[in-house]
């Protein structure tokens, strides 16, 4: 009997370790994969002459509330709806009307978070491993009056319930600036950057 009890205790200890693992793995995943933090996306804006290029990278959790592969009809519909919203760039990121901008190209995809170069990828799809995915969008915009691009307002945070913060990098011929847009401040001041 004593032997059986010891085995049971050992099994319980193993169970406790297994239960603790997902949280640790989640932390490790975020450390290894760098900047993907739920609630935070990145918006790069490059302005040169009358051309504006934008690139948005946002966790799937922020955009649709999950990061696993969409399997149910509801999940697939949520992904398609989000892609459609993100494709309409000048609705999501509103530039001043006086700048007379139009979108030339928009490409939106949902993809598995890319691993850092050199990182081993062989345990990628183990059952139970937390997986991350993100939305990646690139845009090309032309503005007839780029001198009127004095700012930007976004409905990103009202459209996407999980988004809390966008780290914004603005590149112009004059240099680079960093800023943040948040749920509390969904706008960006671009006066003086060009
Ligand atoms: Zn994630």
Topology diagram in text:
Layout: H1 2-33, E1 40-48, E2 51-59, H2 60-63, H3 73-87, H4 89-92, E3 93-94, E4 101-112, E5 133-143, E6 151-154, H5 156-159, E7 165-172, E8 175-182, E9 187-189
Parallel strand pairs: 1-7
Antiparallel strand pairs: 1-2, 2-5, 3-6, 4-5, 6-9, 7-8
The chain binds zinc ion (ZN).
Zinc ion binds next to loops.
Q: What's the gist of this structure?
A:
By secondary structure, this protein is an alpha+beta fold. The protein has helices at residues 2-33, 60-63, 73-87, 89-92, 156-159, and strands at residues 40-48, 51-59, 93-94, 101-112, 133-143, 151-154, 165-172, 175-182, 187-189.
Task: Report on this structure.
The strands form 2 sheets. A 6-stranded mixed beta sheet has the order 4-5-2-1-7-8. A 3-stranded antiparallel beta sheet has the order 3-6-9. The model is unreliable at 15-33 and 115-126 (pLDDT under 50). It is globular. The chain folds into 2 domains: 1-33; 36-189, no CATH class. With 194 residues, the chain is an alpha+beta fold. The chain is built from 5 helices and 9 strands, in the order αββαααββββαβββ. It starts with a helix and ends in a 5-residue tail after the last strand. The structure holds zinc ion. Zinc ion is lined by residues 36, 38, 59, 61, 67, 132.
Sum up the structure in keywords.
194 residues, six-stranded mixed beta sheet, alpha+beta, globular, 34% strand
SS element count, helices = 5
Which structural class do you get from the secondary structure elements? alpha+beta
CA-based gyration radius: 22 Å
Largest sheet: 6 strands, mixed
Q: Tell me, briefly, the overall form.
A: globular
Stretches with pLDDT under 50, minimum 5 residues: 15-33, 115-126
Indicate the percent of residues in helices: 25-40%
Helix and strand succession? HEEHHHEEEEHEEE
Head-to-tail CA distance between termini: 80 Å
Provide the domain count: 2
Cofactors, ions, other ligands: zinc ion
According to DSSP, the number of beta strands is 9
Average pLDDT, all residues = 83
> Which sequence of strands runs across the widest sheet?
4-5-2-1-7-8
Binned strand content: 25-35%
